[in-house]
């Protein structure tokens, strides 16, 4: 199964995509996670991407497309994948379509998480992540067991640099300008399933699972 999660920053794409991994046994691939890893490892890609990411701008297509296509060629993607945060531009969607056409393995489902922008800002500002990649929490909606500490490793949680108000605004603009057109792109292909992403995590997961059943 090849699935794409679309939605503005803070709509819960990553959280919901990770939940599907457990129930469907296919990898979740987040270009945001791959890029943050490259930044942490101080690779040439990470050094080039870092400035764009901190400011909340999109990383150039040529970098992200190469990164994603390399990732989905790996053996663990043989049975499919869940993409979260890719594609974010029309050029990325077309590059993906082209690459999958060669293998006759097209995208089958696009889940579009719809949410009010006011709600999104509150979700992003209150988000805290584990510095070791163990997950994310929210100070109000999904607090960790011990205040501001990772449930798995106990390290203090941090706020992503791009979860500051200024970057959030830039990310929302990038979403409206570059990513929103993909809703029509996939609707025209008959692949789009729009879900109301407001509500608690389990309710939203339930709605998503109904698409697959
Ligand atoms: P995310 O974790 O999905 O919110 O992504 C964090 C940041 O990584 C974004 O604000 C962009 O700077 C960059 N990024 C992630 N995925 C993409 C993509 N598909 N295209 C361009 N930039 C991306």
Level of helix content? 40-55%
Output the structural class: alpha/beta
Task: Output the CATH homologous superfamily of the largest domain.
Answer: P-loop containing nucleotide triphosphate hydrolases
Any idea of the CATH class of the largest domain?
Answer: Alpha Beta
Shape: globular
Number of DSSP helices?
Answer: 9
Give the tally of structural domains: 2
Query: Which small-molecule ligands are present, each listed once?
Result: adenosine monophosphate
Number of strands: 7
**Major sheet characteristics:** 5 strands, parallel
Element string (H = helix, E = strand): EHEHHHEHEHEEHHEH
Spatial extent as radius of gyration? 17 Å
Kindly report how far apart the N and C termini lie.
13 Å
Spatial strand sequence of the major β-sheet:
2-3-1-4-7
Explain this structure to me?
Helices cover 48% and strands 14% of the residues. The two termini are 13 Å apart. The chain folds into two domains: 2-26 and 79-212, P-loop containing nucleotide triphosphate hydrolases (Rossmann fold, 3-Layer(aba) Sandwich); 30-75, no CATH class. It is an alpha/beta fold. The strands form two sheets. Strands 2-3-1-4-7 form a five-stranded parallel beta sheet, sandwiched between helices. It has a two-stranded antiparallel sheet with strand order 5-6. The structure holds adenosine monophosphate.
Put the structure in a nutshell.
The protein is of the alpha/beta class. Helices cover about 50% and strands about 15% of the residues. Bound molecules: adenosine monophosphate.
